Amino acid sequence: MRVAVKSRIWRHEKPMTEKEAQDWLRDKFDVSRETWEQLEAFLAMLAEEMLHQNLISKSSAEHVWDRHVVDSAQLLLHAPKGQSGKIWLDLGTGAGFPGIVIAILSDYKVEMVESRARRSAFLESVLQKLGLTEKSLVIGDRLENVESHPVDVISARAFAPLPKLLSLSHRFSTENTVWVLPKGKNAVRELKGLSPKRQKMFHVEQSLTDPEAGILVGIG
């Protein structure tokens, strides 16, 4: 199965406010009190860790629900639902986006690849403190060194240019693997840079958090 290229970018008039972002989350995912507390605890840990290492920009930290939480959560809208036990592979998780958010909001088993030691240590501490270690794990290594295994979803928020990303990660995909790749303003340009065969795998969805950003969604 292949998804035809649909290079469509719909524009929003303006970004979400923090309240709108929180309301969107509650509406789309019917967030329980426990889940909401996990999200808030994660963001508190993120703010604390920002005193010791640069995880996200200071400007985006002021809009963390919109720029990071909803920006991550929206990827679930493009992945199969009700996937308990299925594997979601997140490449270059960094500060925990989207990997930690996906782990909190879904039933996926989330594998987060993060080669930077201090960031992977932070992610490990988040999983432990939030009680997510049974359904999620951190792989503290370069993707090239990770043993090949089939996964159900692959995401990469800021990992590598598209050709390199696909080259490094295709060995984890099957004909049914769903790719959800936020590519910002360069989504269409990066897609057009692929071979025609690769282009046919993907279409472009507009990001909910940036009127000019796109998400590449594909199968295979």
Describe the secondary-structure layout.
Layout: H1 18-29, H2 33-49, H3 58-61, H4 64-73, E1 87-91, H5 99-105, E2 109-113, H6 117-130, E3 136-139, E4 153-155, H7 162-169, E5 178-184, H8 187-192, H9 196-199, E6 202-206, E7 214-219
Parallel strand pairs: 1-2, 1-4, 2-3, 4-5
Antiparallel strand pairs: 5-7, 6-7
Helix pairs in contact: 1-4, 2-5
Q: Could you list some keywords that capture this structure?
A:
alpha/beta; 220 residues; single chain; 16% strand; 37% helix; 9 helices; 7 strands
Characterise this structure.
By secondary structure, this protein is of the alpha/beta class. 37% of the residues lie in helices and 16% in strands. The protein is built from 9 helices and 7 strands, in the order ααααβαβαββαβααββ. It has helices at residues 18-29, 33-49, 58-61, 64-73, 99-105, 117-130, 162-169, 187-192, 196-199; strands at 87-91, 109-113, 136-139, 153-155, 178-184, 202-206, 214-219. Strands 3-2-1-4-5-7-6 form a 7-stranded mixed beta sheet. Strand 1, helix 5 (99-105) and strand 2 form a beta-alpha-beta unit. The longest helix has 17 residues, at 33-49. The model is unreliable at 1-12 (pLDDT under 50).
